[in-house]
Amino acid sequence: MKIDIKINSKDLDKGQIIILISTFLAFISLFLPWVNAAFVTASAFQMHTFLFMLLYIFPVYLVFNKKKFFIDPTHNFIFEVGSGVLASFFTIIFIFTRSTNLFGHSVNLAGSGSYLFLFCSLGLTYGSYLNYQKNR
Fold first, then answer.
1. Which of 90, 92, 84, 89 is nearest to 130 (CA)?
2. Spatial contact of 15 and 133, defined as CB atoms under 8 Å apart
3. CA nearest to 117, candidates 32, 19, 14
4. pLDDT digit string (tens) for 18-32?
5. What is the pTM of this model?
C-alpha cells in the first residue's frame, strides 16, 4: 500500500510523513496531562515543557525545504536526527524525574501527554533518519 500526499505539488516520502505526523501528535500531547496525581493534573504549558517542541522546528523545516541546509551532509545528520534524539532524551529525563515516594511506595506521576510526546520524539528521530538517508 502506497500513500501519496501532495503539498504544493510536492510528493512526500515515508520519512517526511512520519515527521509531520509525529509533529502533529506531539503538538496534541501538549494539551494532555504531563503530570497526573489523580486529583491534580498539569499540562505541558504549566510544566514549561512546551519548549521541547522547539526541537521539532528544524526537521519540519527540512520537510518543506528541498535544499540542504548545510553544505556538509554530516551537519545535516547531526542537527536533523540529533534534534529527535534530544527531544527523546529530555522527555525521558522528565518522565524519570516525576518519580516520588508516596506512603512508602515509589510512584511515577508522569501523565499520558509525556508518554505520547516520547513516542512522537522517537518517531521524529526515525523519520528524520529516513529523510536524511533519502537526501544524502
1. 84
2. yes
3. 32
4. 999 999 999 999 999
5. 0.85
